[in-house]
């Protein structure tokens, strides 16, 4: 009789335990949203054209493209810019780059270097933004501009992409002014 009673109590306890666990609200988790790159490409060469003329040539070792259209260039980027006649006017190189599609702008970081071929001029900075729509570049970081006669230093820059015209926001150092 004792064993029947123990079996009966055990059965009731088991039914109660199962009832409590099955009545408990199960938390539903939201589905995970993948935010990584949708596509990846290596050893890429792209041509940007306008009116059937190449305006820029882009080379990159690796590109990640995201769902919103943004692109990341984690291993660097190299760009060449051409004038209306197809002549190479300037180059841009950066250790890493990112394209923000919604803003139609590029950001280069690391060792950023822009060269104006005709003027034999070079710009160096740790970060630089390029706005293809206006063909301008800008930064709020420290810059160095070197040409055949001068070395200019400053913080902040607004310029045309080919460095044909530029303004250093906060220049430092000394320079020779010609009459």
Written overview of the protein:
This protein has 179 residues and is mainly β. Helix content is 12%, strand content 54%. The protein contains 1 helix and 11 strands, in the order αβββββββββββ. The longest helix has 22 residues, at 2-23.
Indicate the topology.
Layout (H helix, E strand, L loop, with lengths): L1 H22 L15 E12 L2 E13 L5 E3 L3 E6 L5 E7 L1 E5 L4 E12 L4 E11 L4 E11 L4 E10 L5 E7 L7
Features:
single chain; 179 residues; mainly beta; six-stranded antiparallel beta barrel; 1 helix; 12% helix
Structure, briefly:
With 179 residues, this protein is mainly beta. It is 12% helix and 54% strand.
What number of domains? 1
Cα end-to-end separation: 119 Å
Backbone structural class: mainly beta
Adjacency order of strands in the biggest sheet: 2-3-6-7-5-4
* CA-based shape: elongated
CATH homologous superfamily designation = Lipopolysaccharide (LPS) transport protein A like domain
Mean pLDDT over all positions: 86
Helix fraction, binned, reads: 10-25%
- The number of E-state strands comes to 11
List the total number of helices. Answer: 1
β-strand percent reads over 45%
List segments where confidence is low: pLDDT < 50 over at least 5 consecutive residues.
Answer: none
């Amino acid at each position: 009789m004792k064993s029947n009673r123990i079996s009966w109590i055990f059965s009731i306890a088991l039914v109660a335990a199962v009832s409590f666990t099955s009545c408990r609200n199960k938390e539903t988790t939201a589905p995970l949203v993948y935010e990584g790159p949708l596509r990846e490409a290596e050893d890429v060469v792209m041509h940007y054209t306008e009116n059937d003329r190449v305006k820029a040539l882009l080379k990159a070792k690796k590109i990640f493209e995201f769902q919103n259209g943004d692109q990341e260039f984690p291993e660097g980027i190299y760009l060449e810019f051409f004038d209306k006649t197809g002549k190479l006017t300037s180059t841009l190189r950066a250790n890493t780059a990112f394209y923000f599609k919604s803003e139609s702008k590029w950001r280069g970081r690391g060792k950023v270097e822009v060269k104006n071929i005709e003027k034999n001029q070079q710009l160096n900075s740790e970060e630089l933004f390029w706005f293809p729509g206006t063909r301008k570049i800008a930064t709020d970081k420290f810059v160095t501009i070197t040409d055949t006669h001068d070395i200019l230093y400053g913080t902040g820059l607004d310029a045309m992409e080919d460095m044909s015209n530029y303004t250093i926001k906060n220049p430092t150092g000394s320079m020779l002014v010609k009459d």
